[in-house]
What does this fold into?
Amino acid sequence: MDNSISITHPIAWRDGQLVLLDQTCLPARIAYVHCDSADAVYTAIRDMVVRGAPAIGIAAAYGVALSARSHFARTTSGWRAALISDIAKLAEARPTAINLSWALDEMSQAIPTTSSDPFPPLLARAQQLQAADFAANQRMGKLGASLLTPGCGVLTHCNAGALATSGYGTALGVIRSAHAEARVSQVYACETRPWLQGARLTAWELMQDGIDVTLLVDSAAAHLMQSGKVQWVITGADRIAANGDTANKIGTYGLATLARAHGLKFMVAAPLSTIDRAIAGGSDIPIEHRSQSEITHFRGDEIAAPGVTALNPVFDVTPAHLIDALVTEAGVIMAPDKASIDALFSS
Ligand code: MRU
It folds into this structure.
């Protein structure tokens, strides 16, 4: 795949470094963060320079390669323990997206068992994971688009686009494909408080692609649905339990509930790497809570009553029974449940 860094490819390996499009600055400023160590990658994930479930998995995979390079340069005999310790630290950068630990498991399996230089095979594996994610997104785009009848209004939440993946996107991949096939009349994006992934990232990403998008505050979603302008809600996912319960950006559960109440369809688009079959149901998915200041402050200015306590869970869990379609690169499941997800993996 293309190794240049851009809006459509926000993660690149360039001149021996991992280069990330800095999503904390978008859309006001295009800036890049260069990572040459696992620590730098850990910080970039924790601070949301790179965000979105598949993207943080891919970044972490490159973090493993960087770790192997630096530890092998220091000691050709003792690098393994240091590498394993860096992998454990990377896994802690953010708790909810299973793609992070999935990618780290894939990388761990690629560590040579001999004492040879681990960097070349680990770099190659990270590049494979990135390319596979891109291909999966394109496949999901086609599959998901086929569910939409021409002229649909679509609502999305957070950013599950090129910026959240190796490129193209999961939910926005479906929207891109459906738009290309003239199946979408209008895209609506929730602003996604408090981090504004919808307002800053999804709106910008779709506009760069010439896809018309209308932004709304999160609390306008019910009103929009009542107007009849939307037929599908399409989101990504951070972790899908074995029974189909799905963790995604805070507010997704509310949108799924509203969609059902208005007789609209709710689609989750996510690669197989987002499905955590070791977790039976959504109540076992760890939910990340971030700093209260993300709610009480905006760009350093206090906007809430001074001293107020704020609750900032950044993901919620949509029960499987509210999901009409789960779109993966291996196929589409209507009304997903444990049996249909098991069948998807065994097919
Ligand atoms: O906190 P974020 O911005 O990392 O949350 C991202 C989301 O919730 C996305 O919807 C999800 O990771 C799917 S990205 C293809």
